[in-house]
Protein: Chromosome partitioning protein
Amino acid sequence: MNPAQTNAGDAAGIATTYANQKGGTGKSTAAGNCAASEAADRAEDLGIQPSELEGDTLVIDLDDQCDVTESLGVVPNMDPKVRTPNPREHGIIALMLDEDLDPLDAVKRTKYGVDVIPGHPEMHRLDATLAGELTAHTILATHVDRLRRRYRRILIDCPGSLGIATINGLVASDEVMVPVSPGTLELKGLQRLDTTIKKTGVAFKLPNLKIDFILITDYDRRESIATQTRQRLGEKYPEALLDTVVPRSVRVPEAPGYGEPMCVYDPGGPADTAFREVVKEMRKRRVARG
Ligand SMILES: Nc1ncnc2c1ncn2[C@@H]1O[C@H](COP(=O)(O)OP(=O)(O)OP(=O)(O)O)[C@@H](O)[C@H]1O
Ligand SMILES: [Mg+2]
Structure:
């Protein structure tokens, strides 16, 4: 974490980690679409096409499933046996095994104005590979500190577990975004994540590390579980819960198959509209928090 960025309103170089140890809560969907919406807004402000942006928004994929990588149209290297990891070919796994590498070497461009450091299947063995390493939890932070100088926004997509990859994501971040899908076990899971985040903050001397944003995804207001989840999260985490929710849309699960974010796959549709609103609301809240 870069202390200079903390509470710095809408400053550049902000790293946001999308985390929730529960699987399938919409982390990758939110990270990919928020990144594309950030880039689309920025391009609009500058009066250019998103593809003309340079060094604006970066997504770092920490997941061995590589979902966010593929959802942005980047083909990850799926070689399960990496002998000599190199960042150009193997993306995130090479960077996680060597903090002296240049993270910019791992960056792939997309036509959406979003750059991507691709995930890799070998990330599932990261806990075993890095066990006992002194810098096991801070490797990503070292890379992200270099990338902050280059990118206005960095979005880090974590896997659905609380292993070394997620802890790296938390330690590297300026703020934490937790996508939550409606369900009765969500609050319990969130409390566990909250405790882990607090412990991580103490262990790594990051007093500002906390859940900054909670986003309800896959929301269907006709389902009572959805409205109940929203109400309970609002009571328990009033500061963090975003007013904007991402409605359930059949087009959301279709889009990754085409490697397109919602702003391209279904522009003006309910999910695209919601994600554009999410990035605006996050920006407003950052400014309000100072
Ligand atoms: N708003 C939505 N409407 C419909 N389906 C959605 C919505 N948001 C997410 N989904 C679907 O829910 C599933 C899980 O989403 P996603 O992969 O983003 O979750 P995740 O938290 O990243 O999962 P994991 O923990 O496995 O990494 C996907 O099939 C996705 O398409
Ligand atoms: Mg995911």
Observations:
- Residues 27-28, 63, 67 surround magnesium ion (ligand 2) (CB under 6 Å).
- The first strand starts at residue 14 and ends at 18.
- The first helix runs from residue 27 to 46.
- Residues 3-289 form a domain with the Rossmann fold fold (CATH 3.40.50.300).
